Amino acid sequence: MATGFNLHRFANPGRFLRLAGAVLPWLTAGAAILFVVGIYFALIGSPPDYQQGDTVRIMYIHVPSAWMAMMGYGLLGAAGASALIWRHPLADVASEAIAPVGAGFTFVALVTGSLWGKPTWGTYWVWDARLTSFLVLFFLYVGHIALTHAFDDRQRGRRSAAIIAIVGLINLPIIKYSVDWWNTLHQSESILRMDGPTIDASMLRPLFIMIAAFTLHFFAVVMTRMKAMLLEARHRSAAFAR
Amino acid sequence: MTSALGTRFFEMGGDAAFVWPAYGVAALMLVAFALLSWRRLRAAERALERVAESDPAMSDDA
Asked: Which of these, A189, A191, A139, lies nearest to A167 by C-alpha position?
């Protein structure tokens, strides 16, 4: 392909390492700045909600964590497909880098949601469609990590994990639309709506800044892990060759 | 007055028991991932440097 942006240019691990070297400092610095500003607005520079009081501040970490958990799984599914269909040389590395990070954000979303639920709904947990499908997402991540390391033949493990990543993609629309399809305790969509967000601007500001901070952090961590894995592989082959 | 404001901030309108643990869990996870991934990268870079020092042919970044 001679013209336009070609993603496969970065399929070469050497090229990816150079790209990561150039991008990582910017991602890290950007995440750090956005976290400082975002936390200020989340904890100090925004008002308490007229109904939820100060528990609304949990939303500024719960929603970004939940978005990262879902975006991470989308990327995991895409990496799984790239590994199985196109045998993309970086796809398995990307999968192994993404899965624990995605699982971590899913865990944070579940815990913060639970801590928000107790004072708001009067319970830490309820088996409604949104919460249950999100718990399933956590188990999909854990299953992916376990399968990757379950076989002596690493390639077999990676292939099985890629299949679970692709099959699990079906859970993403279930999570997204669970609040519309079923009668759930979890409130319906309030940000990505056709008629615009239903949240006040004073609360949208910290929310969007924190989403941006979480996103940069996610990619910084995933790229760092990918870079480390590629260097470890290079070290292994160097040690093998000696 | 400053201490009253500080107390009100830490009390979080009576919901401190929910707000601070939520921020604590998130902060712990964010810092742990950043730190662990950075340490893993540094370890991998150092291991490669050691190989490159003992075998200059391996230092080629390709």
From this structure: A139
Could B41 and A228 be called an inter-chain contact, meaning their C-beta atoms sit closer than 8 Å?
Answer: yes
The number of domains in chain B is 1
Mean pLDDT of A217-229: 97
A119 touches chain B (CB under 8 A): yes
> Please, are residues A122 and A131 in contact by the beta-carbon 8 Å criterion?
no
Nearest CA in chain A to B35: A221
Interface residue ranges in chain B relative to chain A, Cβ cutoff 8 Å: 9, 12-15, 18-19, 21-23, 25-26, 29-30, 32-34, 37-38, 40-41, 43-45, 47-48, 51, 55, 58, 61-62
Question: What's this model's pTM, rounded to 2 decimal places?
Answer: 0.90
Residues composing chain A: 242
Tokens read off for A5:
């942006």
Q: Which of A211, A65, A213 is nearest to A138 (CA)?
A: A65
Q: Given CA atoms A23, A29, A35, A38 in this order, what sign does their dihedral have?
A: negative
Average pLDDT of every residue of chain B? 87
**Which tokens hold the place of A145?**
């990590």
Q: Is the dihedral of CA A49, A53, A59, A61 positive or negative?
A: positive
Sign of CA dihedral A107, A108, A109, A113: positive
Coil vs helix vs strand at A53: strand
pLDDT in the model for residue A1: 39
**Looking at residues A218-226, what average pLDDT do you find?**
98
Residue numbers of the domain that contains B36 = 2-59
CA distances from A103 to A134, A145, A211, A240 (A): 11, 9, 17, 33
Q: What's the rounded Cα separation, in Å, for the pair B54 and B39?
A: 23
- How much is the average pLDDT of A55-64? 96
